[in-house]
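User: I'm putting together notes for a lab meeting next week and I want to include a structural view of one of the chains we've been expressing. I don't have a solved structure, so I'd like a prediction I can at least talk through. The sequence is below, exactly as it appears in our construct file.
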Amino acid sequence: MIPSGLQAYADRGPDWAAWLDRLPGVVRDLLAEWELTPDGEATHGNTALVLPVRTATGEAAVLKVGWPHWEAEHEALALQRWGGRGAVRLLRADPHRWALLLERARREDLTDLWDREACEIVGSLYARLHVPAPPQLLTLSSQAARWADEFAALDRSAPVPRRLVEQARSLARSFAADPATDGTLVHTDLHFENVLAADRAGGGHEWLAIDPKPLSGDPHVEVAPMLWNRFDDYAGRVREAVRDRFFALVDAAGLDEDRARDWVVLRMVVNVKEELLENRVPDRDWVTMMLTIAKAVQG
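Assistant: Thanks for the context. Below is the predicted structure for the 299-residue chain, given as structure tokens.
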């Protein structure tokens, strides 16, 4: 039941290995308690097992059991707040076991669509997903304040232009103090592979968001993941292609260009910071990619 690719995550450390040892029992218990029948091969993402199932009434669904981590802590809360509007429906949840029973969408995502078309779809989803945030969510302003402190601690010899670090630190401090930084339910990881096609009752075809990493935040923070995913598609015209995606998203969603640009720059440098601080041997290609996008959106 546990895919070999997911089993390989035991190499990530003892906590992962222990979770993977418990996972088959957790899944068996959930299948029995929720009266679910497996209905296909299990798959996985970077942090969760996903098993197609049928409910007791025959409804097609998926059982998702995740690795416990803070970004997924309030996934059920976000899905419940959206109520199926622009996102997959939440059918049942057990937060203690990090388990969700979800509406089953198709495996078709946005990776095969032309950039502009995909950006317009994602931009239109923003309007449906950006609703008032539940009070339990972590705030984006608190994240920004933490980032500002971490930028200050970044070694000056780090392989990132100091000017860009100082710019990101200034942006983080400004956003941390800005009341508009909080209050809206934001997905924070909305990109090509986190939007799936679904066929709903009545024959309607919809594109639905999955796998939110929700915060109480600012809608303008959402643009960045669409710029770093499918980076290879830029193929020799990075500056122009990054800007094409950026403006397609901003225009489709009616976002403020300058504020969206500032969030893109900040999130790219945050990604660089985390790569440099968390990995003894940083992925230089990833660092270069983030810096390239940060520079591209600024002209």
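A couple of points you could mention at the meeting. Strands lie at 37-38, 43-44, 48-54, 60-66, 90-94, 99-103, 184-186, 195-200, 204-209, 215-217. The mean pLDDT is 95.

User: Perfect, that's what I needed.
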